[in-house]
Amino acid sequence: EGPVLRGPGVGDNCRGLAVLTAIARAMRDARVVTPGTITFVANVGEEGLGDLRGVKALFGDTLKGQVDRFVSIDGGGVNVTNVSVGSLRYRVTFKGPGGHSFGAFGLANPANALGRAVAKISEFKVPSRPLTTFNVGRIGGGTSVNAIPFEAWMEVDLRSSAPAALKALDADLQRAIDEAVVEENRRWGRPGMVAVEKTLVGDRPAGALADTAPIVQAVRAAGRALGLTVPLSEGSTDANLPMSLGIPAVTIGGGGDGHDAHALTESFDTTDAWRGAQHALLVTITLAR
């Protein structure tokens, strides 16, 4: 619709891939030669249960020990993410014998236990600075409307840029889940009938670079050279992993204006988006000196 593109993932992170390839194409066409080596990488598994698997493979096998700076291009805008938001993600499965909804009524119910846990999670009190968040993102289980489920599950996302805050939130989650199981079993006088399994399915390290760090200053200086203001930001991206390894790493936006990330209504406004790509190109050349 005019300059606006619509579709899930169009801004986060189709934009990043578009800018990545644009940089490589521009450098090739202009025959730019840099003193340092630039490796362009498109990877998978950054989001959701992917748990950074692409960038973990990159630093675990492909380029281990060969990277001295890392830049991720993620989403729109013109900014630099120097604070990595860490996360813990769990798949929590409540289990019980299950049975007929009428004939076996009175059994402790895994879905009820899950509901009790979600209600407790929704009441968590978390700090706003550093921003610490929680989310029950997916729920499933059961076999029929007229059957007590033998299994009910949920996936939970916890985030914070402060390891201590994330650890405290994790402790709250564990306690809420365990209390929910005890309460459901007690409700029906069935100790131990419903049990729970908690599986860690995502673990992103938190970290931060000072705004005076050379790589951060280089990104902002490239912006100034183009007449752009490059604000600092925080986020959870591929840069989390190299930052945790002590490698100077940041994430930059690819220009344009994205809206409703992670929603079916996601859109990306391409107006002046070239300015973000221009900035990314200059950052690339600057850091390869």
Topology (elements, then pairings):
Elements: E1 4-6, H1 14-30, H2 53-62, E2 70-73, E3 80-84, E4 86-95, E5 99-100, H3 110-122, E6 132-141, E7 147-148, E8 151-160, H4 163-187, E9 195-204, E10 207-208, H5 214-225, E11 232-235, H6 240-244, E12 249-252, E13 257-259, E14 267-269, H7 274-287
Helix pairs in contact: 1-7, 3-4, 5-7
Beta fraction: 15-25%
What multimeric state do the chains show?
single chain
Mean pLDDT: 96
Q: State the major sheet.
A: 5 strands, mixed
User: What separation lies between the terminal Cα atoms?
Assistant: 40 Å
Please tell me how large the radius of gyration is: 23 Å
Count of individual helical segments: 7
Outline the low-pLDDT stretches.
Answer: none
What share of residues is helical?
25-40%
Class derived from helix and strand content:
alpha+beta
The number of E-state strands comes to 14
User: What order do the helices and strands follow?
Assistant: EHHEEEEHEEEHEEHEHEEEH
Shape: elongated
Short characterization:
By secondary structure, this protein is an alpha+beta fold.
Overview of the structural elements:
The protein is an alpha+beta fold and 289 residues long. 33% of the residues lie in helices and 25% in strands. It contains 7 helices and 14 strands. The chain has helices spanning 14-30, 53-62, 110-122, 163-187, 214-225, 240-244, 274-287, and strands at residues 4-6, 70-73, 80-84, 86-95, 99-100, 132-141, 147-148, 151-160, 195-204, 207-208, 232-235, 249-252, 257-259, 267-269. A hairpin with a 7-residue loop joins strand 13 (257-259) and strand 14 (267-269). Helix 3 packs across helix 4 and helix 5 (214-225) crosses helix 7. The two termini are 40 Å apart. The model has no long low-confidence stretch (mean pLDDT 96).
